Amino acid sequence: MDFETVMQELEALGKERQKKMYMSNGAREPVFGVATGAMKPLAKQIKLNQPLAEQLYATGNYDAMYFAGIIAEPLRMTEADFERWMDGAYFYMLSDYVVAVTLAEADIAQEVADRWIASDEELRRSAGWSCYCWLLGSRKDSEFSESKIADLLDLAERTIHDAPNRVKSAMNNFLYTVATSYVPLHEKAVATAEAVGPVELKKDTKSSFIHATENIRKFTEKGKLGFKRKYVRC
């Protein structure tokens, strides 16, 4: 299936209500408004196709960019490729749920995520933390350095309250993911989440609060400690 056909198929799948939802979360035109579930039959036809993924991502169309992440071949992508994709990720649904997810299936995931966490850019930082969430929630514990993850927990505790909103959210998810999916540091992650306490997210004149401890407790009560997902991408 060629680029033009895929764009036509995506446009036909678009729904106005879905489009409004995406735009309320930060997406900008062009947007078709395709539900992620509606993309699955199309993805099954195409399977993986990195050249096509690159064409789609370059359009700036939110739905095409999201679909690019589904059909991308992360093992073929270089650090420069991921940096280029991040440059095009203009809001968190692209940075954290397309680029970070795609990166999580690459061999260079941790190196790239480490660099993004150390960045001064909000979306790169959130993508770095989010990538670790996807990694820890899918890969064996043995693939990670315990001391490195412990250092990231300490970093989150020190900086979360002063971080931009998207970074706060990603860090909060990191605390939750380490506590629930990375067994060696479960207790430390729980203690860190408790020390952090509620995290305030400000939007205009309104505030909301997130608290990793609450979600960790609910998950632990279900007896799913150490949970690993089979697939990162849908």
UniProtKB/TrEMBL annotation:
Residue stretches in coiled coil: none
Which residue ranges traverse the bilayer?
Answer: none
Classification via Gene3D superfamilies = 1.25.10.90
Which InterPro entries does the entry link to?
ARM-type_fold, DNA_alkylation
* Superkingdom field: Bacteria
What's the protein name? DNA alkylation repair protein
